[in-house]
Amino acid sequence: xxxxxxxxxxxxxxxxxxxxxxxxxxxxxxxxxxxxxxxxxxxxxxxxxxxxxxxxxxxxxxxxxxxxxxxxxxxxxxxxxxxxxxxxxxxxxxxxxxxxxxxxxxxxxxxxxxxxxxxxxxxxxxxxxxxxxxxxxxxxxxxxxxxxxxxxxxxxxxxxxxxxxxxxxxxxxxxxxxxxxxxxxxxxxxxxxxxxxxxxxxxx
Length: 204
Ligand code: CDP
Ligand code: CDP
Prior knowledge:
Cytidylate kinase; transferase; 5 strands; alpha/beta; ATP binding; Rossmann fold
């Protein structure tokens, strides 16, 4: 039987961290849908056509540290406004969501467009300052040469582009439960998320 947990929210809010832990807790598979857009964005930086890149994406394209750079993130958010790019990626995400044994998908439009029928929906947020601090720390740890101000500007610009686009904009689904992680440790955020999903399973 399939069971889908949709986790959306702005850049670096903690979606991936929470999704991985929630998936491990319930024994579900996890898909970071941002990687799909990052992979297309990376191809475009190498000169590819975005729609063609989205149509010919393979799971091998989703591997690699090069997808984690701020340049690729910016390119991802630019290709993500293109309707044909989004359309080319829908079926892969829906098939993943329907897999037997349960799935957690995180992104921007999972609860609204990809899986409006998801059994549980979370909208994970945090202040832009906190998110920039966390992403900065992560990039520095991975050996990247970035400034904290550039990271903040990147996060703010991507959020604005994601919220303002016509197709599948970043917005909480009406039936999503919001978790603001600004003042939560990872452990607290994860246990809150698990609590919400357990509540849904019990019909609360
Ligand atoms: O997936 P998303 O971009 O929303 O965020 P993430 O990659 O899960 O989290 C960004 C960074 O924030 C990671 O380095 C996490 O370890 C950290 N984080 C945190 O410090 N506290 C939280 N409550 C959640 C995430
Ligand atoms: O990890 P972070 O939150 O910084 O970004 P990501 O989840 O890897 O997503 C990179 C970009 O892909 C976002 O800024 C969005 O423009 C786009 N994206 C999207 O449009 N829809 C999704 N379901 C996931 C990502």
